[in-house]
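Below sits the subject:

***
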Amino acid sequence: MITVPLSALEVAMVQTGTPAEDTLRDTTEFARRVEELGYLRLWYAEHHHSPAIGAFPPVVLTAHAAALTASIRLGSGGVLAPNHAPIMLAEQFGTLAALHGGRIDLGIGRGPGTFDESTARALRRGAGPTTDDEYRDDVSSTLQLLVDEVGLDPLPEPWLLSSSTAGAALAAELGLPIAFAHHIRPDNTLAALAHYREHFSPSRWCASPRVLVCVETVCAETDEEAARLVGPMDVIKVGLLQGRGGIPFPTPEEAAAHSFTAQEAQVLAGFRAHQAQGSPETVAKQLTDLVDLTGADELMLVTPVYALADRLRSYELVKQHVMMPTA
C-alpha cells in the first residue's frame, strides 16, 4: 500500500470522432468520481490547439469542478505563466480560493502548452519564448500580487511545476513546493529533486522541501489489458518524437493496428520502465518503488487512456489495491 497521498491530473483527452463537448462532460464526471474515491487533489493542465487534448482553461475547469464538489483540492497543473499576465493569475486564483474555502491550488508552469509556434506567439501576443529571467519575474510577480493586491483570504496554495533542474532551482529559490513532471522527463527526476532539497530556502509559502511527483499510471485487471489501454498514448508519444504534435488521439483498436519501428518500440519501453502500468499488483509495486526512489511526499497520477470508463476504472483499482485507506 502507498502511504503518501495520491492525487489526479486531468489532461482532457479528446476521443477521436467525438465532439469536445463530450470531453467536458467527462471532466465533470471525473471530478465527482475521484473525490468520491478519496484522492487528495485534482489539477487541470493547460493545452492549446491540439486535436488530442481539449483547449479548456484550467481556471474555468477549476471553478466548474469546485462548484460541484465539496472536499477535494482543485487547481492548475499547471497554468503557464508566460501566457498570462501575473495580475490576472493572482486575481483569478485568489478569487477561487476565497470562494471555495481554501481548496484551490495555483500550479505554475513555463511551457507554451502547444507544439505550434504560431499558436504560442498568439498566446503571447507576438512575443517569442520567455527567458529564464522573465519566467522568474512572472512567477515572483504572481506570488507578490497574491499578497499585496488581491487582498482575499485564504490564498491559493502555490506550486511550481518543473521537468528540469532549472525549474527545481527556481522552486528552491522561491521556497515553493515542487510538482515534478516525472511523466514527461523521468530521466531528470532524481537530479532535479536532489538539487531542490539541497538548495531549498524556506518562505511564507512552504517551510521545508515538499515534493509531488506526477507519474503516468494505467491500471487494469491484467497487465495485458493495461498494455492495450496504453496503446493510444504510445502512438501520440511516437508522433511527438517525430515532431508531429498535432495528431488525433486514436482508439485502442487503431493503436493496436499501428506498427512501431524497433527504435520506437525501444524508446517506448524505456519510458514505460519509469511509469506505472499493469495489473493492480504490478502498479502497486511500481508506485511503491517510485516513492522509495524519489522520497515523494505525494504522487499525482495521470491516466491518458481513450475512454472515461477505463480511466475511472484505473483510479478505482488504485484506490482498492494501492491507496492506503484513510481514517
Summary: The CA atoms of residues 158 and 182 lie 19 Å apart. Strands lie at 6-10, 41-44, 73-80, 104-109, 157-162, 178-180, 211-219, 276-278, 298-302.
